[in-house]
Each structure stands twice: as C-alpha cells, then as structure tokens.
C-alpha cells in the first residue's frame, strides 16, 4: 500500500501552428478552409478510385434484370430485389451478416492502413472534393477564392458565387435522385419529379437528400469528419504501432526552416536544418485543415494530400521523398513493420468466417416460405361423418422472381381428408393465403396432440423446391 507510484518522464510535444492567413474581411483559415489543389500519385489514385465508385453508385439503379430494375430496395412492399435475389423481412439474418461483414472489413482495413476509408471511399470525402473541384473551376485557386471572399460584392463575385451554388445544387439533386432511385423505380422517378407528378414521400426524400448533400459537402465539410462522424472517435482503438498512417518524419524534418535551393542536402546538418522547409503546403492542401507535423490526430482522414504536396516540394528541392508518407510508428522509430500480427490475423479470420456464413446463407436459402396459422376460435370440431376436423390458414410466400404452381400435402396422419385448394398458383414475390381444413377418424389419433407437417412443393418445375413446416392436430 505504501509503495511509490513509478513516474515516467514524458517529453512534451511542441505544437507548431500554421502561419496566420487572415484577410481584412475576417476570413481566416480557422473559420474556413481553402483547400489548395495538389497533384501527385496518391491524388491521382484517389480521384480514379472515387470516380469508379461514383460510377458504380450512379449506374447500378439503371441496370435491368428480367425486365425489371436489377437493384430495387422497395420498402413499401417490404421486398429487396438484387438481381436474381429477392430478400424479405424474414431474411433478416442476411442483413445481420452483411452488417457484421462490413464492420469487420472496416476493422481489418483500419488496423492495417488506418483511416483510408475516410480518405478514399467515404461519400462525404468524395462529394466534398467534387464540390471543391467546382469551386476551383468557377472561383479559381485557393488564393483567388480568399481574395474573392474578402472583397465587396460586385457583379463578377455575384455571378461566380451564383454559378458555384447552382452547380452544387445540381450535383446534390442528381445525387438525391440517384439515391432515392434505389428505393423506387428510377426511370419513373426522374420523369415524375421533373413533371411534378412524383409521390409525396419520394419527392420529400429527394428534396431532403438534396439539402443534406448540399449542406454536408458544400458548407459543413470537415465538420462532418471532425465533429459528427463517430468513426473518427473510435478509430484509434484499432490502431497499433504497426498501422500504416500518414505521418511526418520528425527526425528527418526537424529543425524546419526556409533555405535556398542552392543549399545541398548534405550541408543541412551543418546548418542545423532538417528537410522540412516550413512551406506549410501540407496544411494548405489538407481538407480538414490540420498540420500533420504535429503528430497523429483524429482529424486526419488519410487522404494522402499532404504526402503528394510534400513529395512535390522535396523533388523541387532535390531532397529524397517520403518526409511525409504512409508509414508506421515502428518504421518512424527505425524498426520494421510487422504485417502479420495477432490482432490483424484475428480480424481477418473472423471476416472470412462471417463472409463464409453470408455466402452459405445465400446459397442454401430456399426461395419459398410457409407460415401456418391454426384457427384459434375452435380447437377442433366433429363433422357429421364423425371425423375430427382442425382448421388452418396457410400463407405461401414465393420469394423467387418466377411464378410457380405448388402442391400442398400433409404428413403425420395415416388417413385424412384435406379440404381446400391443394394446388395453388403464386406469382413472384406474392403471398397467397390458403384456408384448409384437415379431418381424420378419431381412431387414428392415439394422443390428444398429434404433430403433423404441411409440405408445399413446386409442380411442373425443373428445380424442385419443397418446404416442410410442423404444426399440431388437436383432439379433446
């Protein structure tokens, strides 16, 4: 109880603040981020990657399969159609598997490569960069945008601002129409929306998501990443010293400071300088406005913009690239990154197991479902012929995308009379209610409760599909 608590000396981290960029109008880097354009390998890859997934997002709802929309998540009909697969509320386990697989895929990627989801695939980041692209094309570079915002309103500023916001609204509207098109037939949605014949809820959600996209990508931007996104808060729980993240090599970069291009790299040490020339380009290209030289920060989305900016400066100065790079804490300390480590392997194993379970559930899924409802008003009755009769209501759900004829049979009674439709026709995606009465001689009943099974089987079909459901036959 009286043992002293060990004390560890910790070297305080020196936080370097970027130079003030305040304008006379009061616009500064602390209340508005003017992202500077950057070129480089990572930026090219990010644009290419973003365009691919943006194209997939835009094309999928327009695809057709068997004469209908290939992907249609019809909430009103409680039916999700994904090409040849139709999901119903009864298929909730599939949704659970998909969410679990997505979660562990995110954990695995984050443990290996940090917050790359945010930097390369997140819709918020993708649409933010699209909006910034329109800003650059209409208002000019980051410096021109600062000057434009600082000056008084005139005709040129009014026209440029109007064109920019008009472009933002146009992109937001197309985004909202495409997104809502996943939940309602997209061909009719576009026509009905622009002819003002759209339904209330479809129109409401188009306007709602238009406003959300315009606000998130146009105005809130980094606020979504730094203050509202929960992923930024718990991502650090998945990091370790071997996680690849965007990082600044302090040993190589410090002491930072300006210098002449004529100063050879080999002479830096004698001058007391590191490789960093303190140009602040890494801050100016950052979409969240942080200084990566201050160390790992939760605001960093691992987009790699600062990597490209710094590599460009290093190339012009004749210095080796990689002052800012995707690296691990172990590499920065002079060690080696351990790719295969228990936590990463654990995430991968669980991811493979859950993916296998998802695939197995889809492959073994039977596109037919049977629900049996007993008549609760009368447990049983005796017919004029002296038979014992139970009444049931069968609900036959055709979960496939084809129409089928089905036959209904009973197992568990040696002799019985089944009254009602024993051959039914159910269209694709429909639920058919079939009332049936089952009667048998009381001498066939040895117990008060007899377990029986109703079976429903496809008729005249190349693929035989059978569903067997238990129920009870009551007597006395």
Q: Which spans have pLDDT < 50 for at least 5 consecutive residues?
A: 20-30
Number of domains: 2
Mean pLDDT: 88
How many DSSP-defined strands?
A: 16
Q: Report the total helices.
A: 16
Span between termini: 74 Å
Main sheet, how many strands, which sense, barrel? 5 strands, antiparallel
**Helicity, in percent?**
40-55%
Large-scale geometry = elongated
- What portion of residues belong to β-strands? 15-25%
**What structural category characterises the helix and strand content?**
alpha+beta
Q: What would you report as the Rg, rounded to the nearest angstrom?
A: 33 Å
Keywords: 4Fe-4S, Electron transport, Iron, Iron-sulfur, Membrane, Metal-binding, Transmembrane, Transmembrane helix, Transport
Protein name: Cytochrome c oxidase accessory protein CcoG
GO molecular function: 4 iron, 4 sulfur cluster binding; metal ion binding
Transmembrane segments: 45-63, 94-114, 166-186, 198-217, 344-364
